[in-house]
Structures are given as C-alpha cells and as structure tokens.
User: Which sequence fits this backbone?
C-alpha cells in the first residue's frame, strides 16, 4: 500500500499533500480539545504504546496466496482507539519514520497519509460507527459489537484505500487505470482479511485488559446492554 | 523516578512489543507464517511493469536509514523512533493547548 517516489504526477502529489495538511491541522485542533477533556499526561504514554504496536505490526508481512504479502495498515484501528482525527496524525508520523527506511516515498507521504490515514482512519471510523448503529439493535456485548464492527470496517476501508491508491497511480500515468485499479482491489481482497483479523484481535485484547484505552465509545455510539 | 513509576506500564509494554517482534521475526520466517514477498501495490506494479522498472523509479530522497539491512535492528530503531516522535508531537499539542488557556 505504500506508494513509492516517482509514481505519482506532480499535481496529484501536491494536491494530496495539501489535503493531508488540512486534515492534520483539523486533527491537531480536535486532539487539543480531547486533551482538555481527558488527562493528557495519562493518555500520551499509551499513544506511544500504540505507535510501537502499529510500527511492529506494519513491519511483519503475512503471506497472501499468489506470491504476495500483506501487513497491517492500522488506520481504522487507530481511529477506533483514539478517534478519527488522531488516526491521521499517528499514520502520518509512522509513514515519516518508515520513509527513513525507504518504505514509501518521501514525496508520496501526502498520498500515503491520505490513503491510510484519511480513508482508513476517518472514513473507516465512520464505517465502523455505521455498523455499530446496526449492531446496537442486537443483544451483543459492547466489546463484541466494537470488535465485529472494527473487523468489517477495516476490511471495507482497506479496499477503498487500495482503490484510491490505484486511482492515484493511474492518474500518474505510469500504469493505466484499467490495469492498476482491478489489480489493487484483487490483491487487497485477500490482504484485507489479515487487516480485519489483526485489527479486531487488538481491539478485543484492549477491551479485555484496558477498556478505558478505547476513548471513542461515545462518538461511536456504542450502547451497552443495560442502556437498551 | 516518579515519572518512570507513572509510565511504568507503557514503557514495559513497549519493551514487550519489541521482544515479541523479535521473536515473531525469528520464528515467523522460519516456519513460514511471515513472508518477504512484495505487498499488494508492489505486486500489482511488478505484474504490470516488472521488478526492474519498480526498482528504477526516480526518487529525490535517499533514505537515511536505508543502509540498515538487519530486520531486527530496523524494527527496534523504527519502534523507538515512532514512540519518541509520537509522544513528542502529542506532548507538543497538549503543551500548546495548555499555553493558550
């Protein structure tokens, strides 16, 4: 999913940088507000833990049939844990560190943040929220609702991000859109399963050991059984 | 000391994550649950234009840590850099917010 340098045309590169910067500015403001309501001294070390977890998981590639591999992107996962706006900032910082190792292009950080942070993080979060609204009609425990919604939301978000990455590369002209978009969707149909499973397991694990670390229950609209 | 005490669990968790990553890398590649194959985008690009073309894409940037070939060292440095950067940026946001008030 990490777009390297040299694939995007200058206009796409600049436009996606601008879009990413706008989302980052909004993200900074929204996070500032969260810190007013929550104890930032307590929250920030756990954001560090999340960064470590995400980097570690992005580092390990699991095999996908057909000589391909996949790794966790984690945008939707961060969105569910910290909120959609924090996801853009977290993914941006992870991408900056990865670019130091040559994973993803430096000029493409804007596009990569747009795909993995904005689409997976923000859009993925609202897909999760929509699924939770449906699951609220069932008698399921809240952690199961969030876990299932995270799995489905992550999967859909990965496919959307793969589609967008295909569009961006296609606009660049290096590979025709009619080739790159179906190819991206095809491979991410398999890769997305890993994303869904890993994201769901991490959310479920957090619910079991430190449920207060999921700071978005209210925004997600999760209704507990006793509220029904 | 108080700072360490209050952040004991996050620090311990990061150490555990590093250890688990190292074990995963060692065991994972040996038993085949991890893969060095190209990821989805790389696969799509290689299928369309070939591996040589992908490797020859122009970049204005020489990755400053690209010389690290060991996955283990790259993993540890990457995790630590991510944590430091992330904590620094979020402390900065909290600091700016506090100063504004």
Assistant:
């Amino acid at each position: 999913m990490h777009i390297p340098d040299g694939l995007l045309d200058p206009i796409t590169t600049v436009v996606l940088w601008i879009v990413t910067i706008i989302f980052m500015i909004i993200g900074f403001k929204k996070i500032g507000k969260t810190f007013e309501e929550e104890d930032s001294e307590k929250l920030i070390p756990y954001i560090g833990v999340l960064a470590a977890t995400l980097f570690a998981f992005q580092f390990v590639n699991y095999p996908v049939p057909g000589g391909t591999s996949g790794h966790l992107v984690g945008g939707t996962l961060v969105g569910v844990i910290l909120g959609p706006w924090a996801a853009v900032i977290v993914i941006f910082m992870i991408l900056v560190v990865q670019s130091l190792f040559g994973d993803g292009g430096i000029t493409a950080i804007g596009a990569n943040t747009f795909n993995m942070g904005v689409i997976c993080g923000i859009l993925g979060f609202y897909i999760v929220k929509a699924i939770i609204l449906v699951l609220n009609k069932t008698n399921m425990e809240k952690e199961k609702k969030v876990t299932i919604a995270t799995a489905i939301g992550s999967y859909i978000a990965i496919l959307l991000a793969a589609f967008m990455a295909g569009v961006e590369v296609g606009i660049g002209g290096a590979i025709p859109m009619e080739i790159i978009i179906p190819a991206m969707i095809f491979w991410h149909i398999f890769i997305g399963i890993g994303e869904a499973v890993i994201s769901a397991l991490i959310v479920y694990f957090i619910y079991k050991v430190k449920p207060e670390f999921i700071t978005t229950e209210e925004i997600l609209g999760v209704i507990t059984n006793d509220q029904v | 000391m108080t700072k360490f005490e209050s952040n004991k669990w996050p620090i311990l968790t990061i150490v555990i994550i590093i250890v688990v990553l190292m074990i995963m890398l060692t065991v994972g590649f040996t038993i085949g649950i991890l893969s060095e194959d190209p990821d989805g985008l790389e696969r799509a690009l290689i299928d369309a234009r070939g591996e040589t073309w992908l490797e020859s894409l122009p970049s204005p940037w020489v990755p400053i840590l690209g010389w690290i070939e060991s996955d283990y060292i790259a993993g540890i440095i990457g995790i630590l850099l991510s944590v430091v950067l992330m904590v620094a940026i979020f402390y900065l946001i909290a600091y700016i917010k506090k100063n504004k008030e």
